[in-house]
What does this fold into?
Amino acid sequence: MGKGVATTDQAADMRARLVEAAIELLDAEGPAAVQARRLAREIGASTMAVYHYFGGMPALLRAVCDEGFRRLEAHLAAVAITEDPITDIVRLGAAYRRAARENPHLYDMMFGLAAPGGHRPEPAPHDDGGGRPGPGDAAYGHLVAAAHRAVQAGSIRPAEPALIAAQLWSMLHGFVALELAGHFRQLPEAADQVLAPLGTNLLIGLGGEPDHVLATAAQAPIE
It folds into this structure.
């Protein structure tokens, strides 16, 4: 039994090393650098390691995306819950943008905006096989929970929290994807000039009290 456990641990370690190598290459050199041969060389293994531990590049890239969503979820989980759900939503937006800007190439790949070597990641699972949310759904869950608190507190109009969260995520992703692609180069203060007004307009449209939403946005600026 001990030998089997060691083998399992070794396989898990190799998978983790390959995923981390891919993330580091994405950050340093972009999607073109993420190739089976290059990844194997980075961890001191043969190219067959990618196929032995993942079955091929699509599954490895799926694992990379999952790790990206776990890191995004960690950023969102670190946002403290306060007595004001509007403040929480604004701070979640700031945390989301910070996570994306930490590794723009990883963010692009997570959302299908990059395909290293022409490989597309395998479809994302909605659960981990044990009934728990998959990495992407777990990250999304923080927005759903914040929307639920806002509805319960009367901070916005009653509506399905998942649909409110979908609007918030669409807003954040749209801005971040455009920003990372360089479309706001002519607006050096795009976070303040575009994202903050966009967010306040959405929250007011959802029923937030205008003065409170505007004051909250001013007190919790997006970094």
Summary: The chain is about 70% helix and 0% strand. The two ends are 51 Å apart (CA to CA). The CA atoms of residues 31 and 116 lie 5 Å apart. Residues 2-29 form the longest helix (28 residues).
